[in-house]
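Write out the bound-state structure for LLP.
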Amino acid sequence: MWKIEPPLKNFKGKLSFANISTLNLAKQFGTPLFVTDSEQIILNYNKLYSAFSSHYDKFKINYAVKANNNLSILKLFNYLGSGVDCSCPEEILLAKKIGFKNQDMLYTGNYNSNNQLDFALKQKIMINVDSYSILPRLLKLGTPNLVSLRINPGIGGGSHSVLVFGGKNTKFGMSKKDAVDAYRLAKKSGVKKFGLHMMTGSSILDSSYFKKVTNKLIDIAVEIVDECKISFDFINIGGGFGIPYKPPEKPLDIKKVGSDIGKIFNGKKSSKILGKPWLFVEPGRYLVADSTILLTNVHSIKKSPGKYVGIDAGMNTLLRPALYNAYHHIINASRLNSRKTEIVNVCGQICENTDIIAKNRKLGNIKEGDLLAILNVGAYGFSMSSQYNTRPRAAEVMIHKRKIKLIRRRETINDLIHGQNLVTWFR
Ligand code: LLP
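---
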């Protein structure tokens, strides 16, 4: 069973979120609607920050913009003192628009073009270089103040095989051998400062994984320092901190992760050879996933063959179930006290058989016209949504201490045709 706990609340059998009636939100803004509770983001940020900083004070969080790029959410991270990790020039531009300073931005791309590298270089932001061949191209464009390399430490983790970014069979990161060659080349070319980076997987709930992979990275860092005679300004252990999506998953013990990593960074081997570099993390999911629910209306129920509950949010609104077979818990916001349950499939309106948000899911008695809430959609929810099947993208609302703000309006037909030039050839 899913426990209804804050920011969710059972208010006389109907769901409220951050103390606001979800039924009223749906009525006011329409559905599908992403609703974000700012307080939950603040809570997550503070929990993560104190878990690490209480063991190692040179600690910094760089929020991974790709998880949720809404400007108001970026603004909140800026207000909290976070940096940002950007995957492309466009994310750098968003962050700049919000007021993030150069020194608070990282650019972690992969297979970058010269134009992208040139852009980041001109913006004077820190670049995480993903493979050896990128470095000579970068150095030809100019001498960056700092060079950081993304290492593949040889192992990876992740809740789904496609979310494993380290180890064999991954397109990310470079070997230690390539890294040694790259640092030597950078040093020879006049680069004075260095960083080290890894990002080995996403959605990880096992705290011991972070200890294991960080130990590996530190071993590699020590060897690199020895072989290249450089020192690291920062060591970035990436993101990947998971959240529980599916009962009975338990939350990641982030305090344990913070204390394990702190111990490694404060340990003899590390402090003797590496000195005291900054410890960077760049999480997305952990900070925003559980801050947001997706409200969606039930329009049509088909009883046979199989029971299908048709809602107005589909793979165009939330791609994760279709793409990764990801589980998102669903609550009938209109009927929280209903005791009757049945097994149903919940589907969207897209003309694809993979447009299923929940397969064979035991849900409370659902009727046409009910409002459903899909949970934990703040990370890789809106940011992976599309206009497929000519669907305007959903609206987004933020709640901050009972204040409600539409932070992204629902798209219209004009947004769908924006930027197109109609040919005049076919008269
Ligand atoms: N840093 C880099 C370089 C990344 O590529 C990512 C995520 C992060 C940080 C943040 O990872 P997180 O803390 O959120 O695990 N679309 C998938 C997730 C893909 C993650 C891609 N990279 C999903 O919906 O689960």
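---
The mean pLDDT is 96.
Residues 306 and 344 are 8 Å apart (CA to CA).
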